[in-house]
Automatic annotation (TrEMBL):
The lineage of its organism: Bacteria, Pseudomonadati, Pseudomonadota, Alphaproteobacteria, Rhodobacterales. GO terms for molecular function: potassium:proton antiporter activity; sodium:proton antiporter activity. Its main location: membrane. This is Na(+)/H(+) antiporter NhaG. Keywords: Cell membrane, Ion transport, Membrane, Sodium, Sodium transport, Transmembrane, Transmembrane helix, Transport. The chain crosses the membrane at residues 6-24, 31-50, 70-89, 101-122, 128-149, 170-191, 203-224, 244-271, 291-308, 320-348, 360-380, 392-412. Pfam families: cNMP_binding, Na_H_Exchanger.
Length: 837
């Protein structure tokens, strides 16, 4: 075939891609639906002109179109890894974990249920063997939610809903293709009725092998990319090779799922890449992959749609009834998951609830697309599959895909409108009014400065100012109108605006490199959680998320357990260093938010709301300072090193800005500028490296900070440091319960603890102890101890405490003072303890 003609056809397809997106926006239809329709029209027209006798002039073009090397392997080995890998790079993984239950239910459970539902329905309605029916079920169970996601974004649907659908789209392809591989093997081997248990038992093996391959491939690629730290294009080139090598390695080398390998590789790079690559290189890498995925997604739809006329050849009347069976079974299976299983999981608090209108939109938005057609094509190409099975698979998969694209795709936007999802809630309407009012006030100030700078005509300025002033007054009156919005909602709107500004400040700091790329994703995720917490829970939701951002999580506590019980320190070192940097970043951002409250929020919502927000912000700041002080006590030198690193990075940023200004002013040429920047980049690489953290001396450093042990010599301090155990507890955690056996004495290194006994409460802070009364009186505990702030505690067992008490006069004095404060006779505590001094 003429290479020139093929090149012209491919170039024309890119022209189609360029015009399809604005056409879809004009027609208000999903982009994927427009691409599919164009592809079907092109394929049908090529078939028509090749077979008609009206003209032979277009035969070469038609032959070139129909002769394109479109095979299933092109889709599975070229386009699919690109789409999956880019999707993983664009995911906010920390936020996805918040909704991992509904994502996994839709991506795995729904795929299995749809496969079984369609398979057994077809086995009942047709003469096909069960293996072939289950194969068809696996083919049609994968969804392409790009259409519904794009519509949700255009109507400003909650981000959480878009995350759930995007997470489903990423993982359900992997699950469906893994099931496809299983049942395809049974069909090619001629096994008509496979053992379902045996088939599903192989499923985890495919997934585990693919995940391991992807993880290892990604870590190897990251090592290579870090070696090329000064060669950005080399790093991007390695990232391009990664998904394809992972896919081929999993499929061809160990017989595992290549799709899972690509997903695992992408997730690994997403988690580790921002901390190992320069920020600009990571940003450019993401942009390259966004463009590649855009082209791949469009081409896969058009090329798959070109195959539809070929796949529908030989369709019979009875096939339409089977297509109806597939449609009903697939929709019913998805409805069972959305309206049966998800509400049940939300009822038992396993999964966060998903509102009914959104579940209905997800149900109708379960479009099928290019992946379904590619899998069907793979079946029709196999010479080991019976002819009748190939014919039915091609027709049913294609017919079902056409139904979802033409019927569901074209009616999706009206359905969303009927569900009321295209209308803003009263809260969002109020928020939009607030945004307009605040924006116009800022514009007025900027315009006033501009007109003064340019010395514009007074009459012109006055007439335009009057028009703009009227609009501004109307916007402010609308925003301040109390009709339809409660004071509680005003607080919520203020918190949403405050959290949104916090996110903007974080982005500015990341671009300035004041906040490192390693921590950028985490602090941005915390800001996103604050926005959603305020939107869904108001003041209490904002406060709850703010507490979580400084609390010791399960991962941190697990790392502490690994360190103290097994001696594995790596995870604790990394998480502690991350916590240090996170708290320093939060302190930096919180410092600048008070000005936003006074400058913006007070104008719209008044003094009372602004004062309340100031109070909430002050509490957040205090909790961050408390948590940071606790770490400073444990690792006094490390905090200083991080602050020195911050100063060095800030100085480098300012130095870079000065070089750029000198170049723009013509003071230095391109050669000098390049040399200076290369030297700066080398110094920045050193400054970006986080200092090492030594956690082995933590207890000894803490012991030296406590006045209770001030009279111990260095040898005794070291012995005590080895004997003490460190515990990190969150605010609200119960440290000691009433009537529990006395196991040791706690010393508060940082934070605060509240004791409650017989209706009385005592609050203890840094340097104080608790638990000693029950030990010395040999009675079960009658007090309950609860942390009222994130706290670091040191635990000393009973035997060592008694031994230490005999030697330390300072400790004896503290025990006496504590007993007198609680109304206990100190002499009873020291009945069997020899006193010194």
């Amino acid at each position: 075939m003429d290479i020139v003609l093929i090149t012209a056809v491919i170039a024309s397809l890119f022209l189609v891609i360029g015009t399809a997106e604005p056409l879809a926006a004009r027609l208000r239809l999903p982009y994927s639906v427009i691409l599919a329709i164009i592809g079907i029209l092109i394929g049908s027209a090529a078939t028509f002109f090749l077979r008609t006798e009206l003209t032979d002039a277009l035969n070469p073009v038609a032959e070139a179109i129909l002769g394109l090397p479109i095979r299933s392997n092109v889709f599975l080995y070229v386009f699919l890894p690109t789409l999956l890998f880019q999707a993983t790079l664009g995911m906010n993984l920390r936020r996805m974990l918040d909704d991992w239950v509904p994502i996994m239910v839709l991506a795995v459970v729904a795929v299995v249920v749809a496969t079984l539902s369609v398979g057994y329905a077809l086995a009942w309605a047709s003469a096909l063997p069960l293996a072939a029916c289950l194969l068809i079920g696996a083919i049609v169970s994968t969804t392409d939610p790009s259409a519904v996601v794009s519509i949700f974004r255009s109507i400003s649907a909650p981000r959480r809903l878009a995350r759930i659908i995007e997470g489903e789209s990423l993982l359900n392809d992997a699950a469906a293709i893994a099931l496809f591989g299983l049942f395809m093997g049974f069909v090619m081997l001629g096994v008509p009725d496979p053992e379902l248990g045996e088939a599903l038992a192989r499923f985890p093996v495919l997934i585990a092998g693919g995940a391991a391959t992807g993880w290892l491939s990604a870590h190897a690629a990251i090592r290579i990319m870090t070696l090329f730290s000064n060669h950005e294009r080399a790093q991007i080139s390695v990232s391009v090779a990664l998904p394809y090598l992972a896919y081929i390695g999993a499929e061809q080398s160990i017989g595992a799922s290549g799709v899972i390998a690509v997903v695992a590789a992408g997730l690994t790079l997403n988690l580790t890449g921002p901390g190992r690559l320069p920020p600009q290189a990571w940003s450019n890498l993401r942009e390259v992959w966004d463009l590649m995925a855009h082209w791949a997604g469009a081409l896969i739809f058009i090329l798959a749609a070109l195959l539809i006329p070929r796949l529908l050849e030989g369709v019979r009347i009875g096939d339409f009834a089977l297509i109806g069976v597939v449609i009903l079974a697939a929709i019913a299976a998805r409805a069972v998951i959305l309206f049966g299983l998800l509400p049940l999981l939300a009822l038992v608090r396993i999964s966060p609830p998903v509102e009914r209108p959104y579940r209905a939109a997800i149900l109708w938005g379960g479009l099928r697309g290019a992946v379904t057609l590619a899998l069907a094509l793979a079946v029709t190409e196999s010479f080991r599959v019976p002819v009748e099975v190939k014919r039915v698979v091609g027709i049913l998969a294609t017919g079902f895909t056409l139904f979802t694209l033409i019927v569901q795709g074209t009616t999706l936007r009206p359905v969303i409108g009927w569900l009321g999802l295209d209308r803003l809630s009263p809260m969002d309407e109020a928020l939009s009014r607030q945004v307009v009012a605040v924006a116009l006030q800022t514009v007025r100030e900027d315009v006033a400065r501009t007109t003064e700078d340019y010395k514009l005509t007074h009459e012109t300025v006055r007439s335009e100012a009057k028009i703009f002033g009227d609009r501004l007054d109307e916007a402010v009156r609308t925003a301040e109108a109390r009709a339809g919005i409660l004071d509680r909602d005003r607080v919520t709107l203020g918190l949403i605006a405050l959290a949104g500004h916090e996110r903007d400040m974080i982005l500015v700091r990341v671009r300035e490199r004041t906040i490192s790329a390693r921590m950028a994703e985490q602090v941005l995720s915390d800001a996103d959680r604050l926005i959603e917490g305020a939107r869904t829970g108001g003041r209490s939701g904002y406060t709850r998320i703010a507490r979580r951002s400084v609390a010791y999580g399960r991962t941190f506590r697990a790392a502490v357990a690994l360190h103290s019980r097994i001696g594995i320190s790596g995870p604790l070192v990394r998480l502690t260093a991350d916590r240090f940097e996170l708290l320093l970043s939060q302190r930096l951002i919180l410092r600048d938010l008070d000005a936003f409250i006074d400058g913006r929020i007070r104008r719209i919502h008044g003094r009372r709301v602004a004062d309340l927000l100031h109070d909430l912000l002050a509490r957040r700041t205090d909790s961050v300072k408390t948590a940071l002080e606790g770490l400073r006590l444990q690792y006094p030198g490390y905090a200083e090193e991080l602050e020195r690193r911050f100063i060095r990075r800030t100085a480098l940023r300012l130095e870079e800005r000065e070089y750029l200004a000198m170049r723009e002013d013509g003071l230095i040429g391109a050669e000098v500028y390049t040399t200076l920047i290369q030297d700066l980049v080398a110094r920045r690489t050193v400054a970006e490296a986080r200092p090492p953290l030594d956690i082995t001396l933590q207890r000894l450093d803490l012991v030296r900070q406590l006045p209770l042990f001030s009279d111990l010599d260095e040898t005794a301090l070291k012995r005590l440091g080895r004997a003490l155990q460190t515990r990190h507890v969150n605010a609200g955690a119960v440290v000691l319960r009433k009537d529990a056996a006395a196991k040791g004495v706690y010393f508060i290194a940082s934070g605060a603890v509240e004791l409650e006994s017989s209706g009385q409460t005592w609050r203890l802070g840094r340097g104080q102890m608790f638990g000693q009364v029950a030990i010395l009186m040999r009675n079960p505990r009658r007090a309950e101890a609860r942390a009222i702030a994130p706290s670091t505690l040191l635990l000393l067992d009973v035997v060592r405490f008694r031994s230490l008490l005999k030697k330390s006069a300072a400790l004896q004095k503290a025990v006496r003072a504590s007993a007198e404060h609680r109304g206990i006779d100190p002499d009873k505590l020291f009945a069997d303890i020899p006193q010194e001094g």
